[in-house]
Amino acid sequence: MAYKLIGKDFTPQDVRPKVTGAGKYTEDFKVDGMVYMKMLLCPMPSANVTSFDATDALDMPGVFGVLTADEVPQVEEPGFPMLTNKPRQLGMPIAAIAAETESIAAEALEKIKVTFDPQPFVLDPLESLYPGGTNALDGGNVTGGNIQGKEGVGGNKIHDFKWTARDFAIAGDEKMPMGEAPVEWAVGDVEAAFAEAALIIDEPFVTASSSHAALEPRSVLSYWENGKCFIHGSSQSQSWMMPGLARMMNISLEDIVYVAEYCGGGFGSKASPYPVQGMTAYMSKKIGRPVMLRVTRAEEYHFGGQRPGFQGQVKMGFDKQGKMTACDLYIVQSGGPNRGSGDYSSAAGAVALVYTPTNMRFRGAAVVTNKPWHVSQRGPGQNQIACVIEPLLDKAAKELGIDRIAIRNLNAPEADVKFTNRNSTVTSMFLKDAFSLGADLFKWEEKKKMSGQRNGSKVIGVGVGTAYHSAGSNGFDGLLSIRPDGKLYVHSGVGNLGTYSYAGTSRAAAEVLQCSWDNTVVLRGDSRQGLPWTLAQFGSNSSYTNTRTNFVAATKMKKMLQRLAAQELGDAPEDYDVANESVFHTSDETKIMTFAEAASKAIELGGEWDGHEYPDDLNDVTKSAMKKVVGAGLVSAAKDKIPKEGSVPGMATGYCMIELDTETGKFEILEYHSVADCGTVLHPKGLEQQLRGGAVMGIGEAVLDRVIYDPQNGLCATVGLDQTKPPSILDVPSNMEMSAVDKPDLSNPLGVKGIGEPAMGCAAAALLCAISDATGIYFNRTPVDPDMIINALSGRPQSFKPLQVNT
Amino acid sequence: MKDMMPSFNLVQPIDVKSAINLLTEAGAGGWAIAGGQDSFDWFKDRIKRPHTVVDLSGIDSIKGIRETDDGGIEIGALTTLTDVEQNPIIKEKYGLLSTASGRVASPQIRNKGTLGGNVSQDARCWYYRSGLDCYRAGGNTCYADTPEGMNREHCLFGASRCVAVTPSDTAVALTTLEANMVIVGPNGERIVPASEYFIGPAIDIERMTVLEPGDVLIAIRIPAKWSGAKFYFEKVADRATWDFPLVNIASAMKVSEGIIEDISITCGAVECVPKRLTVVQDIVRGSAANEETASLAAGAASRGASALNYNHFKIPLMENLVKRAIRG
Q: How far does the CA of residue A757 sit from the closest CA of chain B (Å)?
C-alpha cells in the first residue's frame, strides 16, 4: 500500500532540542522555593535499623526536614519500599533529607545517627535454595509459581522454598541442581524424544545480571499546588504512570499532574512509577516546598534496576537433519529483594517459538536475593536465553554437519505456529524471510568460508543470532483534536523513552486523515495536555499498540468530519472525503469545510463534537484527559477494539564477523548486519537507530557489562560506568548495516509491529556465536570477558565454577 | 559515588614555591590537585576529606615539553596527557610514551588529566575505593586477598598485605624509558629514577609513590638513551577506551641485524609498581628477536607469579604480551 507518511523519514520534534540542549529533562526544571533532597542508604546487604536520630541534622541551617519510613506508605514483601527500617539490599533508602542545597543535604546526612543490626544475606539463588540457605526476605526466598500441595504458595507472594541436599549432591559442581520447580509446564514427551535423538546437547549456563545503565540517572521534582500533586519524572511512559502515582500518593487520578517530556533512557527500569517519585512527593508535602531529587550514578546502580540473571541447565535433542525434537529447560532466575519479573517464563516461551521444539519441558524458580531491585530489561528473558541457546545451536549444527543458518531455518516457526503449553499463536511470522535476506546481505556463504582463517595470532569468527519479543498490545485509547487553528492535534500518552515512537505512531492518525505532517501537532509529555490511556513504553509495544489507537481515533475522526460536513453542507457523509486539512465533497467542489471551520463548528455544537460526550468504554485516564480537551475543537476519542489474536512477534536476526586475538582474548567486530521482521517499516531512521542501538547494547550484554558482588560482605564492585563497562564507541563497529523484511502484520491496520528488544538479543547472540566460532569454545555464560577467553585458549580452568554468579 | 564534595579551602598558587609552602602549612590536611581526575573521585565519594586543596594548574612553569641539553626531553608534570600524546618530539623520539599516553582512559580524561597525575594516581582496588578500612586505608585487613575476594584486577607479584596494582599506562612507559622524576619539597629538589619513584606496600602501604606530604612532582625527564629505539606498547583492557589495564607492557629494544643488543621492558597491572622484567632483559639481550627468544622470555617473565582467586589469567596474558613485545 502506498502511504504518504508511513515508511517515510521525518524529524521528530524532540530531536533538535536534544541536540541543542534546549530539551528540558527533569533536573533542568527549577521552581520557586525549590529545595534538594538526598537519601540515606543502607550500607550493607541486609539489616534492621535499630535506632535513628536526625536531631543534629535538623539543627543545621538550611535543612528543611527529614522523611523516614514511618511517614510513607509501607509495602508488603516482596514489594520495593519507598523508605524502610528493614532494608534488604545494599543502597536501599532508609531516610531522606531536604535542604537548601545538595551540599548541605549531603553534610546533614552524615549527622544522622543511625544504627543497623546486620542480617544474614544471600547473593546466589542456588545458595538460597539449599536446605537451610538464607532467605533474602523475612517471608521467604521464592516468588511466583504454584506448587501442588503447598498451601498459600503461588501468585506474587513470597514463600520459603528449598531443594533437597540430595538434589545438589546429584548435580555436583558441573551441573545445575534441579529440585522441585515452582513453575513447570510441558508439551509432548521430552524423555521419549531424547531416547530417539541423534544428538543431545546438555549444558549448564549462567547469564549475569546487568544494570540498565541509562545515560540519565533518574531525577524527580515534586510540588503541590491547590491540592494537586505535580511530579516531574524521568520515565519511559506517560499515561501509564498516572494510576500508579495516584495510588502511591493516595490521591485521585484527577489530582496527579505528571510531566515527563524527555527521558535519557530507561530500558525497562523507568517503565512504571518508582518509589523515589513517591518519596520526593511525600517530602514536598511534608515541608511545603518543591523538592528536587537528583539520583547519583551509584544510587542508580543500587536501585535503578538490574536485568535478572539466570542459572540453568538446558538439554536439547536433535534429529539427524537438525530438527530440535526435544528441549528440557530449567532456569533459576535471580531477583532482588522484590517481586521479580517473568524473565524465566518469557525465556521458555522464546525457546518454544524461535526453535519450535517438538517436545518441550520448562521448569523454573524465581529466587529473591539481597542484590538490587531486578526488573525487566530490554528483551527480558528472551535476550538472556538467546545468549544461551544460539551458541549451543551452533554446536549442534557443527556436530551434525549442518549449516548454521540452515539449522535455524529448519527450526524456525511458520505463521501458523502453536507454542508452549498454552498453544500460543502469533499474528505474523517472517523469520525465514529475515534469514534469507540476512544471508544475502551479509554474504553468509562467502563469510562462512573465512571462518577460522588465521592471521598471526588472530583468527576470524563468524556468527548468526536470532531473538524474539512479543512486541505489541491492544485495547488502549486514542485521542485526537482538530482545533480552530486548522491543525490536527495527536494526544500521545505514550511517553518518550528516546525511540521517537511517540512521533512515529502519531503519524498513523495523520495518514488516515491525509493531513500534512507540518500541520500535525503531537501533544505529549505533560498530563495537563490531556493525554489518553495507553500502555507503558516497554516491551517494544509502542509502534504496534499506538498505531492502532491513533488509527481508531483517526478513523472515528474521519467519520465525524464526514458527518459534520454532511450535516452542515448537505448530502450524505459518504459523499465526503478528508484530505489536505479539510473535508470535501467528492463531486461538488463548492462543498468543503476546512479543519479550522470544522473545529469552530464543533465547539459551537458541543455535545459529541467537542468532547463533552465520549464513549463510556474509555479508560479513566482518558476520561480525565477529556476534561482537559473538552471544547478545544473537534474531538475524537476511541478505544482500540480491532481484533487481535496471539502474540505480535518482533523478530530480529544478526550477522557478525570478528577477528579475535588468541593471545589477548580481545577481538574486533569487523562487520555487523541486522535484519528485522518488524512488519511494515513505520519510520526507517527510527528502525535503524533501534537496530543499531540494540546491537550496541547486545554487544555489552554479550561481552562487557559487569555486575560484581563480594560474597563476604555483600558489597558491590560495580557502581560506576567505569566499573560496569558498557560498550564504548571503540568497542562497537563503526559501520553497522540494517535492513528489514518489510512485510505487513495484518493484525495491525498499518502492518506495523515492534522491534526494539530483539534488536539487542540477536546482536548479543551473533557475537557470542562468532566468538565460539573463532575459538571452538562454548562458554555457556555471559558476559564472555577477555580473562575467560585467555584462560580457555591457554588451557587453564576458569576462575569460577560453571554455575557461580556475581563474578 | 555520593556525588557531592565536602567543603574545603581552595588555594591556587602560581609558582612551585608557594605551592610547597601551602602544602607544608596544610600538613596532613593538605592535598595537591593537578588535572583532578583522581582527586575528584575521592572528594565526591567523601572518602578523602582534605581541608586545603592546592590547585597546581595555575603554575605555568611545570607545564610543557622541552628538549634538554643531553638530548633527552623534560616534560612538565602538569602537561596534559593529550599534549604528551600529540607532541611531535615525543612521537618521533619516544613513541612509546606517546602511545601509552594515548591509551589512558578516554579523550576527555586525557584532555584534563596530566602526566604527573597519571603516574601519581592512587590504587584502583575497588575495596579501597569503596572507603573500606583496609590496610592501605590505615586499617588492619585486606578485603581483596581472602578466600572469596573479588580480585580479577589485582596483583600476581609483590603482595604485602595489599594486593592492589599500579593502574597507570604511562608509568610502565616511563619506567622502560628510564625516566627521572623531578620532585620539589620543603627541603628542596631531588631527582628520583622512575624505577624508584613507585613504591610497593612493603615499603609504605599507604602510598603508591615516594612523594611525601608537601612534595610536588614538577617534571619528568627522559634521557636520550632510548631515543628512537624499537618500541612496543600494548594495553589489554576490557574496553577499548575508558578502562584501566588488565595487563599492559612497554618495551624499548635496540636491535641490530636481527639481534637484540639492548632492551628495557616493563609490565603493568601485575604488581603494585611497574614491574621491570630484568630477567627477561637478561635472557633476550644478545639473542635474535624472534619467536624462539620471545617464548623463552615469556615463560621466565611470569616466574614467581602468585595468582589470587580470579586473576590467574594474567599469567598467560603477561607471557603473551612479553612474547609480542620481543618478537615485534
A: 24
Is some CB atom of chain B closer than 8 A to the CB atom of A734?
no
| DSSP code for A226 | T
pLDDT of residue A153: 47
**Cα distance between residue A635 and residue A612, in whole Å:** 9
Residue A151 has pLDDT above 50, yes or no: no
Size of interface A-B (CB pairs under 8 A): 116
ipTM reported for the complex, 2 dp: 0.97
Instruction: Give residue-wise pLDDT tens across range A325-382.
Output: 999 999 999 999 987 789 999 999 999 999 999 999 999 999 999 999 999 999 999 9
Q: Is A730 touching B (CB cutoff 8 A)?
A: yes
Check CB contact under 8 Å for A717 and B236.
no
Report the CATH fold assignment for A307-472+646-793: Aldehyde Oxidoreductase; domain 4 (3.30.365)
Show Cβ contacts of residue A82 under 8 Å, excluding neighbours closer than 6 positions.
A69, A72, A73, A75, A93, A248, A275, A276, A278, A279, A282
Q: For residue A144, what pLDDT is reported?
A: 82
| Short-list B140, B145, B110, CA closest to B37 | B110
Q: Which residues, numbered 260 to 299 in chain B, qualify as contacts with chain A under a Cβ-Cβ cut-off of 8 Å?
A: none
Which residues in chain A have Cβ-Cβ distances shorter than 8 Å to B238? Answer: 704, 706, 725, 785-786
Average predicted confidence (pLDDT) for chain A: 96
Contact of B2 with chain A, judged by CB distance below 8 Å, is answered with yes
Long-range contacts (CB closer than 8 Å, 24 or more residues apart) made by B190-193: B191/B221
Look up residue A506 and give its three cell numbers. Answer: 502519531
**Through-space distance between the first and last CA atoms of chain A, rounded to whole angstroms:** 52
Domains annotated on chain B, with CATH: 60-120+165-225 (3.30.465.10), 229-327 (3.30.390.50)
As a CATH number, domain A477-639 is 3.30.365.10
Q: What is the pLDDT of residues A648-693, one digit of tens each?
A: 999 999 999 999 999 999 999 999 999 999 999 999 999 999 999 9
CATH superfamily of A24-120+218-300: Aldehyde oxidase/xanthine dehydrogenase, a/b hammerhead (3.90.1170.50)
Residues with Cβ < 8 Å from A143, sequence gap 6 or more?
A78, A156, A157, A158, A159, A335, A339, A340, A366, A368
Query: Before A783, cis peptide (omega within 30)?
Result: yes
Minimum CA–CA partner of A706 in chain B: B238
Residue bearing cell 550477522: A655
- Measure Cα distances from A275 to A218, A225, A283 in Å: 11, 21, 12
Mutant choice from A41, A666, A787, A806 vs B, greatest count of B C-beta within 10 A: A787
- Does residue B312 belong to the interface with chain A, where contact is any CB pair within 8 Å? yes
Give percent above pLDDT 70 in chain A: 99
List, for residues B160-170, the tens digit of each pLDDT value: 999 999 999 99
Q: Is the pLDDT of residue A148 over 70?
A: no
Using CA coordinates, name the residue in chain B closest to A705. B238
Domain with CATH 3.30.365.10 in chain A: 307-472+646-793, 477-639
The pLDDT of residue A146 is above 80: no
Q: Which residue is closest to B1 within chain A, CA to CA?
A: A298
Q: Is B327 on the interface with A (CB under 8 A)?
A: no
Q: B-contacting residues of A 613-632, CB under 8 Å?
A: none
In chain A, positions 173-212, which contact chain B (CB-CB < 8 Å)?
none
Count H helices, E strands: chain B? 13, 12
Confidence label for B200 from pLDDT (cuts 50, 70 and 90): very high
**In this structure, are residues A762 and A554 in contact, taking their beta carbons and an 8 Å threshold?**
no
**Per-residue model confidence as pLDDT tens digits over A231-242:** 999 999 999 999
Cell of A185: 509446564
Output phi, psi for A528, to 5 deg.
-70, -15
Whether this model's pTM surpasses 0.90: yes
